[in-house]
Description:
The protein is an alpha+beta fold. The protein has 3 helices and 7 strands, in the order αββββαβαββ.
Amino acid sequence: xxxxxxxxxxxxxxxxxxxxxxxxxxxxxxxxxxxxxxxxxxxxxxxxxxxxxxxxxxxxxxxxxxxxxxxxxxxxxxxxxxxxxxxxxxxxxxxxxxxxxxxxxxxxxxxxxxxxxxxxxxxxxxxxxxxxxxxxxxxxxxxxxxxxxxxxxxxx
Length: 156
């Protein structure tokens, strides 16, 4: 049986990593009813963080957008684990929350989090359009530039 979401990821050249393990005392996702809440994901690849710092300082908007895209891929990896490998169970991306480590005068947080939002739209089309917040902060765990969480609606 074909899975249109997996096929779309392949078309985009994206292979999902194993779902990253939690870094502290929490679980990576919780399902209640048909809603899946995915804990904040950082831009970790193969257990490593490649970019640290602050946007508006030593990290460019483009670098931060790429990091937000990695967060979105990790969200999908968690969703893949939560659905037993069946991403076709995703009905829509309901909401993303984005945190950006940035300098005090940086105000383009929405543009940074577009890196995650754009990926969801590329993968899910209209069902990837979502509510969102994008805020700046002085620091994020492990010095990462971006952290993104998600609320995802699953088919019943």
